[in-house]
Every structure is written in C-alpha cells, then in structure tokens.
Amino acid sequence: MPRQAKHPNDQSPIGTSVAEDIQASLDDAEIRGEHERLAPFEALARLVIMRRAALGLTQEQLAGRMNTTASAISRIESGAHATNARTLMRLAGALQARAILGFDYGPTAEPQRELVVL
Predict the structure, then answer these.
(1) Residue 3: is its pLDDT beyond 50?
(2) Which fold has domain 18-117?
(3) DSSP secondary structure string, 18-53?
(4) Which residues have CB under 8 Å from 70's CB, separation 6+?
(5) What pTM does this model have?
(6) Within 10 Å of residue 38's Cβ, how many Cβ atoms?
(7) Label partner for 42 (CA 20 to 30 A): which of 15, 48, 76, 87?
(8) Mean pLDDT throughout 40-47?
(9) 99 and 88 in contact (C-beta within 8 Å)?
C-alpha cells in the first residue's frame, strides 16, 4: 500500500528533534535564563572534552593528573557546574595548557580585554 503524503501540520511519528525541542523550550523565560546561565560552563566543558580527546586521555587519566576523581572531571565536562580558578589552574596543567582569565569591557563591537594567565 503506498504511503499517503503527510499534512504539513501532522506530527512526526518519532516526535521532534532535540534541536527543535531545545529551541521551543527557549520561549520560556525561566528556561532561557537557565540556558544562558549555563552557557559559559558548557563552553568550558566542550574545551575540556576536546583537549582531553586530543591528548588521548580518559576521564580517569585526567583525574589522576589532577589528583582528583573521575566524577569531578565528569562534573566539569557536564557543563552544569561552576569551576573555580584553582581548579581551572590544575585542569590547565593536566591538559598541558594555560588557563587565562580576564575581563571584557566597553562596547560589544570593540571590547577592551584584560587577561591574566592563571
């Protein structure tokens, strides 16, 4: 039996994609605020995951380099938790990198930046 064309307003039998669901949830001010609050932690998580992968390290191996636990690394990589400056310094050393912290001020189009290597 041939498939009938779907009406544009019919919902897919498998639901919406994750991206569509996230985009729709951002219409809610509370959810949007939480998403914006977590954005820097998620960006840091992506950096850590990519660098750890580039070095060929497991979470356990990275934790060993930092003298911490794999669950601590998992929390950082989840992107849902703040990381303090001391932990960033240890993390950078374990990832053979330098942690840089700073301030961005002035107009958004041409901000002035002051940075310090931790």
Answers:
(1) no
(2) 434 Repressor (Amino-terminal Domain) (1.10.260)
(3) HHHHHHHHTTSHHHHHHHHHHHHHHHHHHHHHHHHH
(4) 58, 59, 60, 63
(5) 0.71
(6) 16
(7) 15
(8) 92
(9) yes
